[in-house]
Amino acid sequence: MKKILYGGMIVLLFLGCNAKKEYILFQNDINATKKPAKKTNKIRYIYQYKIVPSDRLSITVFNHPELSTSATNIKGIQVYPDGTVSLPLIGEVKVAGLTEREASQKIQKLYAQYIKKPYVKLEVLTKKVYVLGEVRQPGIVQLSGDYTTLIEAISQKGGLNDTAMRKNILIISGGFDSPTIRQVDLTKISSLNYKNLLLKPNDIVYVQPMGTKPLDVKIQGVQPILGFINSVLSTFVNIKIIAE
């Protein structure tokens, strides 16, 4: 009798595992963790965001609140189409193409002509990525740093839905001018590498559904992106696909 019960439990356990297999991440190479990791001396590339026109900047000049952007606009100041910002005392300064640190140092050097030992901190306030499709809370993820990862962005949006296609998550980069598509398979541990998972500001993550389902997200600030995704996916064969 005990043997029959044990046998039945094993069968039920086996069937239950198979039923949920579709929703398990990294299921295709689960044994890969048993292999010893290869040692490497490669230095990981750290991405640094560079300012572009239409970015909004927070500029703080310590001990000089009258020169800081918060004195006039708590949402920061916008970078003009020509890549410049207009600041008190020093006028228009070209910041497009610079990192936050480079722009801070440039502005600090210009203010040194007027005030003693200035210290300037500059921050881009509009760095974000879009996470759309089969996630629990699709929408915008604001970035506190220069970049994030696919796993972090999906986690901030509540994780994947049961209907998400985990084998072919799309990351669209390059904006409207030169979009490129990167494909990530979250059923493989081999996909867990820095190059695959890195998300830069303005990247779009699209988690496709397993079945046929229209892409429709009614969230403020996201609607213009939806048409862009549809146009990119409709001409998928003409888009450069970056290999993993």
Question: How many DSSP-defined strands?
Answer: 13
Helix content: 10-25%
Q: Which structural class is indicated by helix and strand composition?
A: alpha+beta
What's the CATH architecture name of the largest domain? Roll
The largest beta-sheet arranges its strands as: 7-6-12-9-10-13
Question: Strand-residue fraction?
Answer: 15-25%
Radius of gyration of CA atoms, rounded to a whole number = 24 Å
Mean pLDDT over the residues: 77
- The number of helical runs is 5
At the first level of CATH, what is the class of the largest domain?
Alpha Beta
Characterize the biggest β-sheet: 6 strands, mixed
CATH superfamily of the largest domain: Outer membrane lipoprotein wza domain like
Whole-number count of domains: 2
- H and E string: HEEEEHEEEEHEEHEEHE
Unreliable spans: 1-24, 217-221, 235-244
Termini separation comes to 53 Å
Report the CATH topology name of the largest domain.
Outer membrane lipoprotein wza fold like
Coarse morphology = elongated
Structure characterization notes:
The chain is an alpha+beta fold and 244 residues long. The protein folds into 2 domains: 56-124, wza like domain (wza like fold), CATH 3.30.1950.10; 128-242, Outer membrane lipoprotein wza fold like (Roll). 22% of the residues lie in helices and 21% in strands. The protein has helices spanning 2-20, 100-111, 150-156, 194-197, 223-234, and strands spanning 56-61, 77-78, 84-87, 91-94, 120-124, 128-133, 139-142, 148-149, 169-173, 180-184, 198-199, 204-207, 240-242. The strands form 4 sheets. A 6-stranded mixed sheet has the order 7-6-12-9-10-13, covered by helices on one side. Strands 2-1-5 form a 3-stranded antiparallel sheet. Strands 3-4 form a two-stranded antiparallel sheet. The chain starts with a helix and ends with a strand. The model is unreliable at 1-24, 217-221 and 235-244 (pLDDT under 50).
